[in-house]
Amino acid sequence: MSNIYLNGQYIPRQDAKVSIEDRGFLLADGVYEVLRIYNGKPFMLDLHVQRLCQSLAAIRLPADIDCMVPATMKLLQQSNLRDARAYWQVTRGPAPRNHAFPAKVQPTVLVMVDPVGPLLPDAPLPTDKALLADDRRWLDCAIKSLMLLPNVLARQQALEAGCGEAIFHRGAVVSEGAATSVFAVIDGELRTHPTDGSILPGVTRAVVLELAKAEGIALREQAFTVDDMARAEELILTGTTKHVTAVTSCGGRDYPVGPVAQKLHQAFVNKVLRG
Question: Which residues are catalytic?
Answer without folding.
Answer: 144
